[in-house]
Amino acid sequence: MTVIASNLGFPRMGSNRDLKKLVEAYWGGKITADALLAGAKALRETHWKLQSKFLTPGYVPSNDFSMYDHALDHAFLFGAVPERYASIPSKVDQYFAMGRGLQRPAEGIDVPAMEMKKWFDTNYHFIVPEFSPKTEFHLHTLKPVDEFLEAKALGIATRPVVLGPVSFLALGKGDKHAPAGFQTLSLLDRLLPVYTSLLNKLEEAGATAVQIDEPILALDQPAELKAVFAKAYAAIRAASPRLSILVASYFGTIGANIDFVADLPIDAIHVDLVRAPGDLDLVLPRIAASATKAISVGVVNGRNIWKNDLAKSVATVQRAVAAVGASRVLVAPSCSLLHSPHSLEAEVKMNPAIKLWMAFAVQKLEEISVIAKAAVDPASVADELAANKAAIEDRKVSPLIHDPAVQAELRNLSPSMFRRTNDFAVREKVQQAKLKLPSFPTTTVGSFPQTKEVRVARQKLKKGELSEAEYDAFIKAEIEKAVRFQEAVGLDMLVHGEFERNDMVEFFGENMRGYVFSQNGWVQSYGSRCVKPPIIFGDVSRPTPMTVETSVYAQSLTAKPMKGMLTGPVTMLQWSFVRDDQPRKDTTFQIALALRKEVADLEAAGLPAIQIDEPAIREGLPLRASEHKEYLDWAVNAFLLSSTGVKDETQIHTHMCYSDFNDIFQSISDLDADCITIENSKSDLKLLSAFEKHGYTRGIGPGLYDIHSPRVPPAAEIKERLEAISKLIDKRLLWVNPDCGLKTRGWAETEAALKNMCDVAKQFRAADVA
After folding, report:
1. Which of 271, 552, 600, 730 is the most buried (most CB within 10 A)?
2. Of the candidates 397, 412, 444, which is a domain's last residue?
3. How many CB atoms lie within 10 A of CB 495?
4. pLDDT at 40 exceeding the cut of 90
5. Within this chain, do residues 635 and 556 fall inside the same structural domain, yes or no?
6. Which helix H or strand E contains 469, and what residues bound it?
7. Residue 288, number of CB atoms within 10 A of its CB
8. Which residues form the Cobalamin-independent methionine synthase MetE C-terminal/archaeal domain (predicted)?
9. In this structure, are 62 and 103 located in the same domain?
């Protein structure tokens, strides 16, 4: 008997961001829809063939591929296409319009994108399905079937991955026409016939097993959800009695939800034993009590890049084998490998001593294969186990990791380092006297377009084709253009544009000790947007100032106030691959101490305002309420540690996006920032409800338009939104700004959108004076 080697999902972008290049070429009109679809098909083939080398036949995933987002795929699949997209004739364009908006004035098309939110506590963003009491479902596409048949034609048996019916509905929202109190799960009876029809079609195509992802099982769930799951899976089993069904939960403990999941008429349960190692004791007895059910043990970390401790994982799998037998145990990653970079093979410049400690997605497949073999026959992979043990031990004792000076700083923190000298009421008066900002002050969130010229200059610098002096001159010229543009358009609080930064986290990591960087360690953030997370391998410190020279230069170009721009400590943590050999709190405080020094240097250099972005603070919130307080306490303190060492007159800004704020409002207030800018444009003002409800009393800039779409919002639309916001928030506190940074946009759309925004602010200002 052998243990099954399986996978839950594979990165979509390809070894060289192939999918990104394909879809962006299509969006830019450089290739046809047919060429896009052909390129995507070729990429899927490559990924299936690669995975089949390591996995048990039949356990390679299909339908895990997406050209934009898997939640969007399922909304499109089940025909949950909002009416505003119905007139778009091409299905490809309709699909992308739902994800990123579409503006074609000549064709009378001008539609915004659907709302985007963080996928649980990851840095991946998903498109939120929209429903109403009138929503009717149908199979708008047959994507899961088509991709299963693609793999079958290659001789590769796959296990299709489908988002579970309960999670699909629960993760959606009522559209703007839905009545108050509308429950998306009320649509389950309409969805199930369509859902089971899809499973029937997969069976007809030859599928023998399906992976149904129900990630909401990692959340605290109300008792009534038991009946919802029971209804859904009774219908699924009745419609597909021969189909082997694995229900996958990940990102945290399944907890008490196992009480009803174990009783569902399904064939296997996947648990995330990286995030919740205790779930083995929770789930295994329930599996053992059944004569046929299997357990999928997620022992390989799908969300980090450190080598698996194979000996530890093998022992875990052997416990499961002893309880239920090898044929009923599946070895898997903790979650889809979507959140891991493609392969270490391209990392030829990384310090070999540090690279030895890592595993990207392809290497994780190798680990899964070795663990599955070792669980029943360790001798067959003795060399692999020995090499892994040596790497694990090498990392533990490496002198590269520990810095006694940084550890001493952590031990010597004092309470005064976590608070401003005076409260906001005092600071506000001092800051207004210094800054002399008008009512409805305008600003941006930080970055300006990273044009092709900017990217080419950076590449030339790395290749040695530009000298440091030539590159610096180029960056200064870009900064000056941005400053002159901001002055011309009428912005009040300026930014330097961040042209010298490849990424808001990577840039700072490159200037700190304790980080290492990959050449090609890209992961998908949203759509075609990829990020290359820094890797925190050791104690973090700041050897020299990182942004002061650039910020001082930008301020020298204008009499208007300039914001220094930093990325906050929690976001630096969340958007990096983080060392797993010490508490995350300690690593975050190390980063905060480094940033605190940068903040002090910016203030000393004359910057009147400093923005410390924390878009990931809500993202890091544990999925279970019982763990919230501990996390929020140290997350807030990390921000305070980074930001409070300044005078009253220095205005501290922060930025957050794609978050539900109601459950962390007190913590947001505790950050004690003088101004917060937030994503708001795609959320129907619901994010502001927390600020209105709790009576937020500091500066706030709710985003007035969506920067993730190339669409230019008309001035009338911005005005309407600001009018709605001003009914919820004291106009004395309101700032006027876009949703987020403008890095991914082009200059033409940026100029048009910001002009409209500033014109609206001037209208409100004039009315306020009148």
Report:
1. 271
2. 397
3. 26
4. yes
5. yes
6. helix 468-489
7. 16
8. 440-762
9. yes
Over residues 437-449, the pLDDT tens digits come to: 999 999 999 999 9
CB 649 within 8 A of CB 431: yes
State pLDDT tens for residues 271-289. 999 999 999 999 999 999 9
| Of the candidates 752, 757, 750, the residue with the CA atom closest to the CA atom of residue 725 | 757
Going from the C-alpha of 252 to that of each of 117, 207, 414, 626, the distances in angstroms are 19, 29, 34, 12
Q: Is 253 within a domain? A: yes
| Mean pLDDT, range 242-254, rounded to an integer | 97
| Residue found under tokens 């020298």 | 556
Q: What angle, 0 to 180 degrees and rounded to 10, lies between the N-to-C axes of helices 279-288 and 310-324?
A: 30
Of the candidates 761, 2, 745, the residue with the CA atom closest to the CA atom of residue 369: 2
Same domain, 336 and 430: no
Mind listing the pLDDT tens digit for each residue in 722-739? 998 888 888 899 999 999
DSSP label at residue 179: P
Quote the Cα angle for 548-554-557, to 5°.
140
The pLDDT tens digits of the residues spanning 91-107 come to 999 999 999 999 998 89
**Domain check: are 366 and 464 in the same one?**
no
Q: Are 539 and 266 contacting, i.e. CB atoms less than 8 angstroms apart?
A: no
* For residue 685, pLDDT beyond 70: no
Same domain, 332 and 431: no
180 CB burial (10 A radius; 0-12, 13-18, 19+): exposed
Residue 659 confidence (pLDDT): 59
Report how far apart, in Å, the C-alpha atoms of 283 and of each of 326, 335, 336, 376, 522 are. 16, 17, 20, 21, 34
Read off the pLDDT band of 679 (50, 70, 90).
confident
Domain boundary among 397, 431, 446: 397
- Angstrom distance (rounded) from CA 635 to CA 584: 10
Q: Does 161 map to a domain?
A: yes
Active site residue 74: no
Strand locations in 581-650 (E): 609-613
Instruction: Return the SS3 of 212.
Output: strand
Give me the mean pLDDT over the 401-422 stretch. Answer: 96
Do 646 and 652 meet the contact criterion of CB atoms below 8 Å apart? yes
Terminal Cα distance for the chain, rounded: 83
Residue among 764, 748, 673, 29 nearest 441 (CA)? 764
**Three-state SS at 306:** strand
Instruction: Classify residue 440 by its DSSP letter.
Output: S
Q: From CA 265, how far away is CA 237, in angstroms rounded?
A: 6
**Residues 314 and 443 both lie in one domain:** no
pLDDT for the residue 195: 98
C-alpha–C-alpha distance, residues 40 and 67, integer Å: 8
Q: What share of the chain is helix, strand, coil (3-state, %, to 5)?
A: 45, 15, 40
CA-CA distance, 387 to 718, in Å (whole number)?
Answer: 60
Three-class SS of residue 370? helix
Regarding whether 529 and 382 lie in a shared domain, the answer is no
Q: Are residues 380 and 469 in the same domain?
A: no
The answer to whether the CB of 648 falls within 8 A of the CB of 431 is yes
What is the structure's pLDDT at 695? 77
Residue 404 lies in a domain: no
29 domain-assigned: yes
Residue type, 106: A
What is the Cα–Cα distance from 510 to 373, expressed in whole angstroms?
Answer: 39
Q: How far apart are CA 576 and CA 543, in angstroms?
A: 19
Name 117's bridge partners.
126
Strands (E), 573-730: 577-578, 609-613, 651-656, 675-678, 699-702
Q: How far apart are CA 218 and CA 237, in angstroms?
A: 23
Given 125, 339, 496, 708, the catalytic residue: 708
pLDDT at residue 526 tops 60: yes
CA distance 335 to 361: 12
Return the percentage of the chain with pLDDT > 90, whole number. Answer: 88
Q: How many domains does the chain have?
A: 2
Question: What CATH number is associated with residue 486?
Answer: 3.20.20.210
Q: Which domain does 580 fall in, by range?
A: 423-769
